[in-house]
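ok trying this again, last paste got cut off
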Amino acid sequence: MADDFRADRCRRCGSKIPQPGLETIVWRHRWGASRDPALKQTLLDYNQKDCEALELVANSLVDLNRAAPADGKSSQIEVILASDLKRQSPYGFKRNEFVFPEMETINRAAYWDYQRERVYVKSSKKSTRKRKRIAVIRGSSTPNETMEHTRRSSCPECKSEQVYKHSKQSRTVVDLRFARHGIKRWIIRHSTQLYRCVSCKKTFYPLDGSRPASKYGSNLIAYTVYLIIELRLSLGHVTSNIRKLFDISLWGDKTYKFKTDTAEAFRSAYDEMLKNLCSGSLLHFDETSVSVGGTNGYVWALTSMEEVAYLYTPTREGGTIQAMLRDFKGVLVSDFYAAYDAIDCPQQKCLIHFIRDLNDDLLKHPFDDGLKRLAMEFTGLLKLIVDTVDQRGLKKRFLSKHRVFVDRFYKRLSSEVGLSEAATKIVERLHKNRNTMFTFLDFDDIPWNNNNAEHAIKAFASLRRVIEGPTTEKGLRDYLVLLSICETCKYKNIDFLDFLRSGSKDVVEFAISRSKRRPQETN
């Protein structure tokens, strides 16, 4: 025990920090042995302040009791009943309050937009473009166009070319027309000539594909899927939106059919994205829960800097994920979930997860000096690395110089003794994950956080509010296919609605075609 009993001062602001009550036991023991008047006065001053604080609390409780109304609910603004406090969930998205300013700086540097727009731009030659917004207006209520399909062809049954006109049939297709500054309803009446074979008497349509297969146009279907996936509207709200804006009634389960048919059309593109992610050089992984027909399941987000894919599993067990990544040899960025540890590849644990856990421990143990010292050392080390990332990007030749400081930190960590239980757990966690905490120092373009996957999880969480509960497993998988395409379009700076309207089934090919077209449009 130190001989000096004066209050310590804060290392930052210089203000006095009151001594804890346990110090009075030492004061009382030493005063009993030495009868030092100074120690006696210190005890008397402490007891006096303790009594004043107790009196203040007692008077406040008496005043609250007198002012409380008969119904038990206080009308005073400064009084909040414990029963009225909102229970805080540790699993929700929230803004963290950090003990150290350095932690706040590190947390800001981990945001997804910051990662892509600042850090990753310095590591690659990619540029970002703003997406165009489309304004919606009410369209005309009458048919706008008539198309005649009279092309003659041979009989599909006997291949005879001796055919003659038999009759005409028409089909009205309801669609949308996109202009530069708006959208309007567009109705096309297709008139198709039927033919009759002289030889086999069979009646048939021309085989040139001119006759529309559906009475709903491709632009209408694309806009409907855009409302469901991009704008996160429920199927009922989408139907109401289409009816109100364009006076088009989608009876029955048409919106659901649009979604399922579009998802099936993109199934092969989705499978290709999963294959690319599992064979690439970088993979972010995260998961979240979902309710399917009242049964809990899990959705996994797999992301790189170019693509996103969502995967559903009935349980959180890592068997499916481990089987998918059996041949993965890139760097896996994830949180500290144990299922990822069994994957045989270089791994980078999310340091922002560790920083937040460390901050929570500091808030729970504000007087633990050993924990504070440990947190300050780790935060200072990571702050220097983040500054280098901010200036130079995620380049190995600039980051590798910090490896010596990491080794020194772990060397000091091994010599720590007499730590509290909370600090000891942090030390054990650091040693356990030593090989996965600073992997990004040895690679190019490997982030030190998992915010890329967290951003993808937030996109699904937003859609989950619309689909959770009534949906089936098949319906959820259709949502995940379309959301994978939508988020991948964002990563490639492609407008999701433009991609749906294009009729293309490959995001990469569409991105390449757009990049070739843009210089011509500029000229």
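PB: full thing came through this time. Residues 37-67 form the longest helix (31 residues).
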